Amino acid sequence: MNNKVGTITEIQRFCLHDGPGIRTTVFLKGCNMRCVWCHNPETLRPTFDILVQPTKCIRCGACVEECTHGARKIDEHTGDIAYRTDYCVSCGACAESCYSSAIVRVGRNLSVSEVLLEVAEDRAYYDRSGGGVTISGGEPTCQLEFTVALLRACRGHGLHAALETNLYAPWDRVEIALREADLVMFDIKLMSQVRHREATGVSNTRILHNATRLSQLGTPLIVRTPVVPGYNDTPLEIGKIARYISRFPSLLYYELLPFHPLGTSKYESLGMPYLMGGVHEPSPDSMRALADSAREAGIAVKIAGLIDGQVQASGDDNDNGNAFAAPFLLGQT
Amino acid sequence: MTTATLSQPLSYSDRLERLKQTKLRQTRQKRDRNGYMDRDDHGTAPLPDGFSWSPIANHSNGSFYRSKGWAANFKSLMEVHPVYVDANDALAGRWMVYLSSYRRCGWFPDADFSHLKPEQELYGILSGIGAQQHFGPDYRIGLALGWGGLLAKVRRCHQDHGLDKSEFYEAEQDVIVGVQDWIRRTVAAINEAESVETDPTLKANLHEMAAVNEWLVDGPPRTLREACQWLAWYCMVSRIYNGDGAGGQLDELLRPYYERDIAAGRIDDEEAIFTLACLLLNDPHYHQIGGPGADGRDMTSLISFLIVEAGRRLGIPCNLTIRVHDGLDPDLFNLGVRTLLEDKKGWPRFSGEKGLTEGFMRNGYSEALARERIAVGCHWMAIPGREYTVNDCVKINAAKVFEVAFKEMMRESETVVPSVSRLWSLFAEHLRRAVLCTAKGLDFHLAHQKDNAPELLINLLCDGPIERGLDASAGGVDMYNLCVDGSALATVADSFAALEQRIERERKLSWAEVARHLSEDYRGEGGERVRLMLRSGERYGQGTSLGDDCAIRISELFTGLIRANLTPEGRLMIPGWFSWSSTIPMGRVVGATPNGRHAGAPISHGANPDPGFRKDAAPTAMAHAIAAIQPGYGNTAPMQLELDPGLARDRGAVDALGCLIKTHFDEGGTLINVNILDADQLRAAHKDPDAFPDLVVRVTGFTAYFASLSPEFRQLVVDRLIEA
């Protein structure tokens, strides 16, 4: 079972926003939704992606020699390396030869055992902080067998295992994964079917249905909403979601994640159009107002990791906008 | 004179703000006059214009040596050293000049160690020969006796030992008399200031200040203010004498005075905090709070919290350490973590008592004794008053040793096929020689240091030197556990890993190619690509990587070599990994290395992985890696963490950082230094330091004003903090 192989975008240690305590988040590659605000476009496709950052190129020409598909060529006039996306098959040979990080292959195939070896490194930190491992994406249920195997392996080794999913899959298919998780975190982005389809490419009918079924399993739940200006940043919309989830008995809390325009450069590097240009992060005041409207449903609410009640009690008007923030250890990236 | 401009009486907060502004102004003056300073601030005030003093030579080379020379010069300097009184301050005095800086020549020339120099240079050894202080005084001795009591003790012991040790005892007496003279002159200046002071609060303060100091000329301190003033005098004169910055278990030192004052209704907590703040302002000594006493019980008390609060109100460089053990008061620990996160001044730092205590016990010492051993300096572990260590002064540049080994292997490559295995053998052999050379240097230092530069100030606060008539460097104390640090761990570990990965496993490079690129500093054809290839391999800090394996092997080798032997004269050496702020000069003497480092670039910092070690830069990965390379004999291999202020905005940050600290210590970690700095602010401050005069950064074991650091060192801090 532990030889099962998955395609991993990234394994990130010391995550503080993907469940309780200090966690390691395993980002799986491939997603079945296309949210227009997605800040991790490199996780969307199930296959490897090639990120290109020309400013890092040292013009060594190694990628041109390695590419057997003619996707890399040296411009005779400028000496720059040209990238023909239409010829590229994302084999990653060019990235393998590039040590300046001008070309980076996103994605690697790892077995459950290999992932387990890496996530177990921080076991002592999980134990002390009440943390563990979070399997995220992309959408982990797109690699269902691997996800189930990894959840089982983590739990089998005494590691708290959380699943972060969009719940967009037939119940019969995803139930097995949901039952294997110690904690499930999922998004409800919009209550309107039509608007949900416009924003994510899919209807939310299945998601809401699955959410209700999931809530009956008794697994601890965290529901999250990425607050995106122009899409769902109204007390009305957030209030609707909050009321919907307030009937889930195992809900730990509802978390609002303020949108951050952090994915822009990734879209450029992937050669993908960025549709959120000009959209800014919601203001701290507006996030607080949304949290207030959610709290009217009688549930605990956090803004990107902060329990709102605690914020008010301490008089701290801390806004925190770290939901999508980069790792915070400087100088090491 | 301070003119009263407020209708309300001056509050402690007003006075502290004035003192802080004065310090900022003085810091700018010092930098403008003396240039940049890549070490801690030391609390000096600028010398007044026109100050002049000339040392009295007692050697044909124009310098001064031995007890007699040092005492005569110290006493002479103290007779003219400016006095300093600030009516806002609870404490009198500032120190302004190092006696050592007046020595025309360094080491005592009659003791020649030229026979050691070739290997010292070959291996980049900082030998510690001539190193002063870097162990710790037991402040309890001074607080109990006062200057008068110390003088009486010296005279009594002199009588006991007769005339054969007269030079030593007379020197110690001269030193005390010099200190008393300085305090008396200060009292006169306080009285003068009081006579012209118009602000009633400050006038009353000066009145009390005069009484405190008049008493302290001879008497032992009786109140918290007197105890703080006594500590300040000792710290100042010890700094003047030879730069000593060792701290002590400050909460326990001051607790009896605080408790007595509170019980008697003499002070309230606000006054206590103000007085403590003035002590921390006077000099950023390396004091400790919390932690286990000899019986294992936690020493945290109310004054531990007041000391932290005093430091927070000051907001200047500070070097307090919280000693973390299982029994530590959780409120003090949380306060420490919150202070780091909220104030972002790089303090407190944290020491891991489990690893340190268990490590020191491996040397054969008792648990009670091990618990008394504290981090009295940057990474100086020492038992105050009882152990001579020369911590932080003795370093072997492992990158230089590696370079010697690599060049030798390539020279012999016509007859012996180069390999990582062969390189390791040569590295181990050269490291063995470097350790032996270092050990000989330590013996040499101890044989002659009393003639070169005796420890006349620290001797006074040790168990033994005065009683025996022997300098602390020459048999005065009971324990000689000599620190030997390795430096450039990540540089060497990553170099070994890169060679194994790229040459032997992947066969992407040959030994000859790497040698050529190193000799060309990666600047020849294809050099940059090779450099990047070597740099992007399995590095130390990634977790279960080749680099991690190499770092562990190197640390085990280094530790084993040091522990396998005593010095030739039979003294114990204790290994650690630490570079202090010497990464720039230690890197300057090393050519390009196979970890992709250019010739002359700084070596890696302390025990830390090099920046860029992991894409996610996980501090847990760093903490785990550094815990795994601890030598484990009671000296430190500190972890330097650079954190983004975004963390501080997170309510869970205290728990997360607290967990990180405690788990690192559970895994054997020994000392943690943390910076929480905004990358954009740091860039801006690097460009225009004067626009950020109060930006404090933790450089290594010490904190400093960023604006006081040299541009080269500022760049290093920026590189360390921001994407490499």
Question: Helix segment count of chain A?
Answer: 12
**Main interface by residue count:** A-B, 40 and 50 residues
Q: Total domains of chain B, how many? A: 3
| Order of secondary-structure elements of chain A | EEEHEEHEEHHEHEHEHHEHEHHEEH
Oligomer: heterodimer
Widest β-sheet, arrangement of strands of chain A? 7-1-2-8-9-10-11-12-13-14
Mean pLDDT over the full residue set of chain A = 87
Main sheet makeup of chain B: 6 strands, mixed
Chain-averaged pLDDT of chain B: 93
* Structural class assignment of chain A: alpha/beta
Helix amount of chain B, in percent? 40-55%
What's this, in brief?
Chain A is 31% helix and 21% strand. Chain A is α/β, with parallel strands linked by helices and 333 residues long.
Please tell me about this protein's structure.
The complex is a heterodimer of chains A (333) and B (724). Helix content of chain A is 31%, strand content 21%. Chain A has 333 residues and is α/β, with parallel strands linked by helices. Chain A has two domains: 5-46 and 109-331, TIM Barrel (Alpha-Beta Barrel), CATH 3.20.20.70; 50-106, Alpha-Beta Plaits. In chain A, the strands form three sheets. In chain A, strands 7-1-2-8-9-10-11-12-13-14 form a ten-stranded mixed sheet. In chain A, strand 13 (301-303) and strand 14 (306-307) form a beta hairpin. In chain A, helix 3 (112-119) crosses helix 5 (144-156). The longest helix of chain A has 13 residues, at 144-156. The radius of gyration of chain A is 21 Å and the shape is globular. Mean pLDDT of chain A is 87; it is low at 307-333. With 724 residues, chain B is of the alpha/beta class. Chain B folds into three domains: 43-106 and 138-243, no CATH class; 247-376 and 646-668, no CATH class; 378-616 and 627-637, no CATH class. Chain B is built from 26 helices and 15 strands. Chain B has a six-stranded mixed sheet with strand order 2-3-4-5-13-12. In chain B, helix 4 crosses helix 5 and helix 25 (679-687) runs antiparallel to helix 26. The model of chain B has no long low-confidence stretch (mean pLDDT 93). The interface between A and B is large, with 40 and 50 residues.
